[in-house]
Design a protein that fits this description.
about 130 residues; alpha+beta; 2 domains; four-stranded antiparallel sheet; two-stranded antiparallel sheet
Length: about 130
């Protein structure tokens, strides 16, 4: 029985490593944020994600000099969903609208149907003069 648990953990680790590799490849395929938004000095994004009654919040501090111009995160409530708010946030930042707020519904599925998780963000950017 112990061996089965070890094999399952190993499988999960392999799957997680494959997801991380795919994420890094996707990030590497995007232009750098500093190139897309000259003059952007700092960016922090307050994120609230979840379903009514179960919301988690955190702040993402973006390393502008090296970050890809990609804003997405895996869903916290389903196994295959992603919140992609790249286009909406880049549009706001290019117009130097700050704070920039928006939301991104999950594109994943649960056994019972579509995931209902929503990610809401509030981005604060600092630009050089």
């Amino acid at each position: 029985m112990r061996w089965c648990g070890f094999a399952m953990n190993r499988t999960k680790r392999i799957e997680a490593a494959a997801r991380a590799d795919a994420r890094r490849e996707r990030e590497d395929s995007f232009p750098r944020l500093a190139r897309e938004l000259p003059g952007l000095e700092a960016l922090s994004i307050r994120i609230a994600e979840g379903i009514p009654g179960s919301i988690t919040e955190h702040v993402r501090h973006v390393m502008v000099a090296s970050a890809p111009a990609l804003f997405e995160s895996r869903c916290a409530t389903c196994s295959d969903g992603v919140h992609d708010y790249t286009d909406e946030l880049l549009r706001a930042l290019k117009s130097r609208s700050t704070p920039a707020t928006g939301e991104s519904p999950c594109n994943g599925l649960h056994a019972a149907g579509p995931c209902t998780c929503v990610l809401r963000y509030n981005a604060i950017a600092t630009f050089s003069k």
